[in-house]
Amino acid sequence: MTSQDRIEFKKSPVPAEPNDTISIVHTARIAGLLYGAIIVCGIFSEAVVRGQLVDLTDAASTSRSILDARLLFKSGFVADTIMLLCDVAVAILLYRLLRCVNATLSLMAAAFRLIQTAILAVNLLNHHAPLLLLENSAYATHFSGNQRDALILFFLDLHGHAYDLGLVFFAVSNLILGYLVAKSHFLPTVLGYALQLAGVVYLAGSYCRFLLPDYLAALQPAYIIPLVAEVSFCLWLSIKGVKQAAD
Questions:
Q1: In angstroms, what CA-CA distances link 102 with 60, 128, 247?
Q2: Domain span holding position 49
Q3: 137-177 confidence digits (pLDDT tens)
Q4: 226: which of 4, 74, 88, 198 fits an S-S bond (Cβ 3.0–4.6 Å)?
């Protein structure tokens, strides 16, 4: 490779490795599709399942709702596991896609995202714990009905806190990812800024839950920003992909 070739290679919007252009384009499309699955599964488990069945102000009602809709509650567990499996793949695919911008930062973004995934995976035990208490008759001899219901509510509240703990790491991943997207020549700069703004919202919301819980409800409308940012990023990767090196 001549010195001129090296300069042209550096100017390429994506790595111009031999026979690698098509795979990079496919990498973007696959990442986008898997990101879509993450968004759908996450919204389903959080809004449709826990949002419909869990009332953190009423332990008895929550227990009855879970008992009456066990299949729905279990489907939330399945949706979350699918979301996390896809998240591992997306972390690796985005690293591969953006390492040409900055390999170290791309690796850091993937690492922070994977830490979030690990936290949320362990946190699924808190989602499943209510079913163990409700379906295992052995626990009935140790807890009264009110005690059982209170313990169920505690596990679900703990699940919410652990979810936000995971989002702290995801927020940092988004801040780095947004920087890489903005600096790349093959993805819209505005998407990078939107992802960084989403990271700020996630950080604010997570710390608010732990440090200023009374203000959490007032911050909820801001979560439309991460939703728009991530859906836009997902759709761009899935439909538009990335510019090929030949562009």
A1: 52, 40, 20
A2: 3-240
A3: 888 778 888 999 999 999 999 999 999 999 999 999 999 99
A4: 198
